[in-house]
Amino acid sequence: MYTELKDYIEKNLSHLRFEHLLSTAKECAYLCQMFGLDSNAGRIAGISHDIARELSEKEIVTLVEKDGMDISDYEYTHPVLLHGRAGAVILQEEFGINEDVILNAVRWHTVGHPDMGSIGKVLFVADYIEPGREHITEDFRRRVHGLNLNGMVIEVLSRQIEYLRNKGNIIVESSILLYDKLLSENDRKHLSVG
Ligand SMILES: [Fe+2]
Ligand SMILES: [Fe+2]
Asked: How far is CA 137 from the centre of its chain?
């Protein structure tokens, strides 16, 4: 499945995107190994997560309308936020992928979601820190690599939220729900230690 997806992406998406997807897949596999997760599922999520990223806004919305979940007014006016959900529909319809861990990871990779799962967390982090990303320093990557999985997601999510706030953009609800969930999980862990 990985090779089939990789060939499709190389043929149908821009070269820059293909490089980003290859690099994300590699980073996903590395993080999966680090946390004892299924590297193959991670690689598949990594190589395919932006499969819908270069479609038109209209195509993205048409795909997402098939997944049975709500689309907010804000998402209707900013369809790029939906490219993960559109990607999950493509993976299901065109490639017959039905594993929820892969679909949820791809579906929620853009802004995060409490239901993204462990592979989803790995993808969320890998998408942000893969070595091709120009906004990331080696120092930051090293620091992230030293954290546990929830810590990594909190680190990346807080940088994203800060970036959006500085630009005066909206922080979508699923990002905030995820952030709150991770913080409360961390709190519980601290409490149980004491
Ligand atoms: Fe994306
Ligand atoms: Fe990406």
From this structure: 20
